[in-house]
Write a structure and sequence with these properties.
Blueprint: H1 9-21, E1 30-31, H2 60-68, H3 108-116, H4 136-147, H5 169-179, H6 199-210, H7 233-241, H8 261-276, E2 301-304, E3 310-313, E4 322-326, E5 331-341, E6 344-351, E7 354-359, E8 363-365, E9 387-389, E10 392-394, H9 408-418, H10 426-432, H11 442-452, E11 459-463, H12 473-488, E12 493-499, H13 506-512, E13 518-528, E14 533-536, E15 544-547, H14 548-554, E16 559-563
Antiparallel strand pairs: 1-4, 2-5, 2-8, 3-4, 5-6, 6-7, 9-10, 10-13, 11-16, 12-13, 12-16, 13-14, 14-15
């Protein structure tokens, strides 16, 4: 099962349920609700395997920089997307270069033109996000801005998941795209603006926007993975013949791969060149980008793993007053300072505007910023699957049963690594994950998958917060898309469920008797597009197919690990 302390279990769950109902336990945010993880009330991890005591204390300038930048969001989307999570601090067009797009980089000319033309902006950390995928809403915004038109969308609803807010730029852009018949939406009446857009989809957007009605696609395909029978064949061929894309060195176009912001800038630059000639350089050269903030080494990056929240105190020990409480999965930076108090080691940490001391046994290393791989990772490879039959993709993974009630995490890792042809044992993975009678933490399971998978594979953890039994529409879509993207790339996903009796799959209800919430790890190794179902190689029961949205509901209050974009 997934990790949960056996001591004070009932009281802890009641507290957690209350906090979740109140919407207080939000990953990544400091909260002020009661927390109990700073004493022996909960089972801490063994710190000897988590911390390197020889690490020097971080320099004051680095810590001051973290505090100074608290509250800014390096992930705020500069294009005005609805996915922004903090007040934007946009960079004006052509104000400066971007720290991730140096003058000698592939997309420098395209990104500079895009920013100077006002089609998109950078982020608060002075980056452009050149490798970040764009979504359908962002693509609509850029094309609408490129058109130069002033569309009055009014309050007419074109798609049931796009709120008709008068004057909202994203709503206006999508409304204009629909009016111009550049986009059509999905059969269920949605547009799905937060869904990543593929290379083929963006080609269709640009082809329809250009309105080249007289274009005739060549009889012979240009790319070996874009047959003439493909719906986007004319659109992609048009882009190629107009020198807007070249494809990959292996002769493929990869129409289903999602598009990054850098690639989008190149596509739009090519379209502008086709329509109006090569864009002139900006009249005023952008200012050089500021030097990036000092990188925090992975050895100082940690994640809170206390289900009930982690107390931050003004000093080392429970006798000091609390200054904040941190939710499970909050990412923190250890300053390098430690103190031993009553047999426990306390660590000084900082996160956002919070700085103080915590019991170090409730922190775990954050794997997502690291690049280390094990020797085991070299024994396997990514095996991109072919469809078993139309619409059905399955990885070549072998099911195993967990030998007890708490090794679901290690068993899921072994099954998942098997999809890469990597062989190991549940016992070895249980030792590395520090699995005990209470189970395994999601971040630790994901960390093992990231560490032992082939070099090209990186995992990320996504939590699904919520107080209800159902995931939101956006959470369901993102979960399904993340799992499908992973599986089709040959990478198994992993889910950590907290499924109530009403949510559980039939095989689960047979074993639980419908008497309790099941907290459990399971690998995902297949997808059926015909029925929107995912294949789960559940080590506790046996393999089964389950509706993707039902599985998303089962992960509410927990989370999942998938291929990092």
């Amino acid at each position: 099962m997934s990790r949960l302390s056996t001591r004070h279990r009932t009281a802890r769950w009641r507290l957690l349920a209350t906090a979740l109902t109140a919407g207080l336990l939000i990953p990544g945010a400091a909260v002020t609700t009661p927390a109990y993880a700073d004493s022996e009330t909960l089972n801490p991890l063994d710190q000897s395997t988590q911390f390197d005591e020889n690490q020097p204390v971080l320099e004051d300038s680095v810590l001051e920089g973290l505090q100074r930048d608290a509250g800014t969001s390096a992930g705020t989307d500069a294009s005005g997307s609805r996915s922004a999570t903090a007040a934007p601090q946009h960079l004006g067009p052509c104000k400066q270069d971007f720290i991730d797009v140096p003058p000698n980089s592939t997309f420098y000319t395209h990104v500079t033109w895009l920013a100077c033309a006002g089609l998109s902006k950078g982020y608060a950390d002075h980056s452009f996000g050149v490798r970040k995928e764009i979504n359908r809403g962002e693509a609509a915004l850029m094309i609408y801005r490129m058109s130069g038109e002033q569309h009055d969308a009014g309050t007419t609803r074109d798609f049931k998941d796009v709120e008709p807010v008068r004057g909202a730029e994203e709503f206006t852009a999508i409304s204009w795209m629909a009016e111009q018949e550049i986009v059509h939406g999905y059969d269920d009446g949605t547009f799905r603006p937060d869904r990543s857009i593929s290379r083929g989809e963006l080609a269709s957007y640009l082809f329809r926007y250009a309105g080249d009605e007289d274009y005739e696609a060549p009889a012979e395909p240009v790319f070996k993975d874009v047959p003439a029978t493909l719906g986007t064949y004319p659109d992609i061929s048009w882009m190629y013949e107009n020198e807007m894309v070249k494809g990959y060195v292996d002769g493929t176009f990869r129409p289903t791969r999602n598009v990054t912001r850098g690639e989008t800038s190149k596509y739009l630059y090519g379209l502008e060149t086709l329509r109006n000639g090569t864009p002139a350089p900006p009249t005023t050269a952008p200012k050089p980008a500021p030097e990036p903030e000092p990188e925090i080494p992975l050895a100082y990056r940690y994640v809170v793993i206390a289900d009930d929240g982690l107390n931050v105190r003004s000093g080392a020990g429970v006798n000091y007053p609390k200054v904040a409480s941190l939710a499970r999965n909050t990412k923190v930076v250890w300053t390098g300072r430690s103190k031993a108090v009553s047999g426990a080691t306390w660590r000084e940490i900082t996160v956002n505007s919070v700085k103080g001391w915590v019991h170090g046994g409730y922190l775990m290393r954050d794997f997502e910023a690291g690049s280390a791989k094990s020797s085991l990772s070299k024994t396997g490879s990514v095996r991109v699957p072919k469809e078993k039959w139309p619409g059905v993709t399955e990885l070549n993974a072998t099911w195993q049963a967990q030998p007890n009630g708490y090794w679901c995490g290690p068993a899921s890792v072994v099954i998942g690594l098997g999809a890469f042809g990597i062989s190991t044992t549940q016992k070895a993975m249980a030792e590395q994950a520090q699995t005990d009678l209470d189970g395994t933490w999601l971040h630790q399971v994901a960390r093992l998958m990231d560490y032992h998978s082939p070099a090209s594979v990186r995992y990320e953890v996504t939590t699904i917060p919520g107080s209800s039994q159902r995931a939101s529409y956006d959470q369901r879509i993102r979960f399904r898309d993340d799992m499908v993207r992973s599986v089709k790339a040959g990478v198994p996903g992993l889910v950590n469920i907290a499924a109530t009796p009403g949510e559980q799959a039939p095989l689960h209800r047979e074993k639980t008797g419908g008497r309790y919430t099941l907290r459990h790890h399971m690998p995902v190794t297949g997808y059926d597009a015909n029925t929107n179902r995912l294949l789960v190689l559940d080590p506790w029961t046996r393999p089964f197919w389950v509706d993707a949205y039902q599985l998303a509901d089962m992960t509410v209050t927990r989370g999942y690990a998938s291929l990092k974009p």
